[in-house]
Design goal:
This is ADP-ribosylation factor-like protein 15. The protein is of the alpha+beta class. The protein contains two helices and three strands. The protein has a three-stranded mixed sheet, with helices on one face. The N and C termini lie far apart (about 85 Å). The mean pLDDT is about 80.
């Protein structure tokens, strides 16, 4: 089957427009999102008996080393990031 030049040109033009629209859609998806939405923050108070492991638990949640942990005197505040939220933990010693 032989196509005329007009039909072939129309097919190329349609393919070019489709390709341009796809590239533009990918560009917008990758570059034009803007900053991610802010994660919600929650305040948590951590209380317990002396030597119960409050500071050790917070150190593990924050991916800090558990070597040389000393008892908390007064209070300590740490932000524990999670994928969907941030916990602001206030630990009372």
């Amino acid at each position: 089957m032989v196509q005329s030049k007009g039909v072939q040109h129309a097919d190329e033009n349609l393919l070019g427009r489709h390709l341009a629209a796809s590239v533009l859609k990918c560009f917008r998806a990758l570059c034009c999102k803007g900053p991610p939405p802010p994660r919600p923050e929650y305040d948590v108070v951590c209380i317990g008996l002396t030597g119960a492991g409050k500071t050790s638990l917070l150190s593990r949640l924050c991916s800090e080393g558990s070597d040389g942990i000393v008892p908390t005197t007064g209070f300590s505040i740490k932000a524990v990031p999670f994928p969907n939220a941030i916990l602001n933990v206030k630990e009372l010693g």
